[in-house]
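Listing 4. Sequential folding, example run.
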Amino acid sequence: GIFHLNCTPYARVNHWLVLITFLQHTDPLLPHYRASEFSFPRGALSTLDRNLLGDLGSFAAWIGATATHGISETHILHHVSSKIPHYNA
């Protein structure tokens, strides 16, 4: 499979970061702007916060947020002010 248990911890973390980033930036509900319409604020707000494991109930959502330090739940805030680390959001 793609995600082997014998891969390095770095590879596991990279897998999660790439997956979460992909899911937050590629939803069909997000607007796509032509070059003439695009601006930094529009681009920064054209992303989604996702409740990782949230569909499985509140306890699973808590596990997802804790395991990723809230990186998927505070993504838009990171785009608004990238100086705020996700763990302080």
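-- end of first protein; second protein begins --
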Amino acid sequence: MRNRISMSLLVIAVLSTSTYAGGKGVVPAIIPVEPIPTVQPTPVYVGVGLIWGKYAGQCGDGGDCPYEDVTYGALVRAGYDFNQYFGIEARLLGTFWEADALGGQELQHFGLFAKPMYPVSEDFNLYALLGYGWTQTTTGGNKNLKELDESGFSAGVGLEYDLSSKEDDKIEDGYYDREFDGQADQEKGWGLFVDYQRLLIQSDVPDLDVVSA
């Protein structure tokens, strides 16, 4: 009887040992899931656009000869966003509408601006341009033409729209939460912009206005 009990205990011990040694009862190792790497968006951006420009003024000191001129051209802009609320931007624009009987004087402008911003939503960003501008053109309409080569304070306001795709999944599914919580998504991709700019804000120069998109 004792021999049978001893053999039974031995068999149980051997089976128990072989079970763990053979792997049937081994709990598989949990492979840690690597977190999705955080994308560090570049703060630098470059854009191009078309412009519609207009200047208006008076021919003489008496104001007896008002004039207005409209022209078209292109714009290149480049900037750096320090954060979602502030950046800097440089822009260069020029028009290719040559002077003729209907006006359309050529216009060149360079500006360097501080760019305060406010994220209206995850996709829309409202911004202002405040800084220095240099402008060269010919004013005075078709009569009393006068070369303008001036620099000074320049300002504008605009709106940007982000076209880059957004994932709408939750964090527990392995994706980022894209719900807008007052913090703008700084990962910029393709986008659209439209803005208005007064090229020079001086009392002694014509009103020089540009709409860019």
